[in-house]
Amino acid sequence: MKAVLYVGHGTRVPEGSEQLKTFAEEAKKDIPYDIQETCFLELSKPDIMEGAARCVEKGADSIAVVPVLLLSAGHIKEDIPEELDKVKEAYPHVSIQYGAPFGLHTKMLDVLQQRLENKGWQKGQDAGILLVGRGSSDDKAITDFHDIASLLQKRTGVDKVDTAFLAAANPTFDEGLEKVAKSSTKNVYVLPYLLFTGLLMQEMQTKIEAADKTSEPSLYLCDYLGYDKQLIEVLRERTDETFHQPFLFEKSEENV
């Protein structure tokens, strides 16, 4: 029997974990598999091993592991596969297929534009955009992020979409704020490329409130991507694609 295991990042902020669970529960309604479980890579429970165990307890002999993550970086390439090695050791009779994150997708740009519009942005407005990512030491993830910024710039028609990162990459968020604070535009929209709330969102809010007191352009912090029907459509696509991926691990015939 086939199962789907959704893997979120995890956060120390309980609200963020609950948002991921709610998002996955909504997605399950549109994804036609009887066994669907949600787990986290770190900081939240259940972890990947516990999630896989729940799938097996319900009768799964094949698990499609779908990362509920934005870009392909260290978590996708190293951390999750390491945990799946442990799952395979514990359940050698189970086949595992491993999918891709949301990645570059038109619907991601649709949601970003909506988040801007929800804060009052309009085409033709004298405004700048600061796109803020979590950050990574992975070159491909940084390149993909800059590609998203470039596509967003073309879509919105602003002169430039500046970028900044909350960790592990440059420019830092502080540097990004300092740059846009010197902008000649009347308004700057700070746009988080984050799925759900957490400590990083709280940190951004605090810094923007402090910077806005001395900043000439008005700063507006947009909402994170969050629960959105369009993101559920992307997740459904990634889930379908995962079931067509080669097996990361095939079940051991000796243990069937």
Automatic annotation (TrEMBL):
Lyase listed as a keyword: yes
Sample GO molecular function, one term: metal ion binding
Lyase listed as a keyword: yes
Keyword annotations: Lyase, Metal-binding
Cited InterPro entries: CbiX-like (IPR002762), Sirohydro_Cobaltochel/CbiX (IPR050963)
TM ranges: none
Pfam families the record matches: CbiX (PF01903)
Protein name: Sirohydrochlorin chelatase
Protein species of origin: Salibacterium salarium
Source taxonomy: Bacteria, Bacillati, Bacillota, Bacilli, Bacillales
